[in-house]
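User: Run a structure prediction on this.
Assistant: Running it now.
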Amino acid sequence: MKKALILFILISLLVLLIGPYAPYWVLMIGVSIVAFLIGARNAPSFFSAGLSFGLTWMGLALFISIKTDSELPIRMAELMGMQNDNLLLFGTAILGFLIGSLSGLTGSMAKKLFQRKV
């Protein structure tokens, strides 16, 4: 539980600080490295990294949308055939969850790969 919380906080900080300047695949590598270094088990790494990445991306998208007061999310939702532009926020969160969770699982499994069996 303690490692999962540390992983959640570190990944949120990673996404907040590096996310605006780096593409998503750099963040995936970073999440894998953090999960490798923390060394949590597979399930906590999967869910902690996924929730952290997804919630942070959704929060950033909501913050940017409110701050700029842009009509772009509404127009993108219309182009995609959605009735509500808030569905884009949930789509962003789901995509972030998938990216983060698979990256966290990769780091956790890589840690087990390099452990010496006794």
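The chain has one domain: 2-114.
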